[in-house]
Amino acid sequence: MILLTDAHYRDDDTSRVAGLLVADWSDSAPTRELALEAGPVAPYEPGSFYKRELPCLLALLSTLDAPPDCVVVDGHAWVQPGRPGLGAHLHAQTGIPVVGVAKRAFIDGGAIPVLRGESASPLYVTAAGCDPVAAAESVRGMAGPHRFPALLTWVDHLARGLPTR
């Protein structure tokens, strides 16, 4: 199983973390939705985003009966070569392979740009504990015609408490 994740932060320093379990990268619907309230969360710290989101993701993982084969995070596994991001920190804590999917690249970050649909703006894929090229191809093959895969939009909406369909 693959766990797609996202978190939404509120003004009161709490968050809602969400996840979708899918059997395959190309699935168009999840086998299970997960969402929980988390808080208080650490304040945003530039360059150390993982301090804010990592506890939320660990709480979400703790609700599962068994660990997933892979976790997808909204962000970077590696900020730059040798400089861990959220995904690398999650992998170090859990041993689970993590794929980071980000909307923006870091300068000299080493992320693999992935074009999807008709968009000229790539997503940026990094990975910890698995092959980054294979991770990028898996993200490219995710369901949906737009730049952002349909299930990643779904989990974003679930984290924000918005309708998912």
CATH domain topology:
archaeoglobus fulgidus dsm 4304 fold
Q: In DSSP terms, counting alpha (H) and pi (I) runs of 4 or more, how many helices?
A: 4
Structural class: alpha+beta
Provide the CATH architecture.
Answer: 2-Layer Sandwich
- Please give the order of strands in the largest beta sheet: 3-2-1-4-7-9-8
**N-to-C span:** 22 Å
Return the CATH class.
Alpha Beta
Strand content: 25-35%
What form results from the Cα inertia axes? Answer: globular
Low-confidence stretches: none
Mean pLDDT: 93
* Rg over C-alpha atoms, rounded to the nearest angstrom: 15 Å
Please trace the helix and strand order, writing H or E for each element.
EEEHEEEHEEEHH
Q: Going by CATH, what is the homologous superfamily?
A: archaeoglobus fulgidus dsm 4304 superfamily
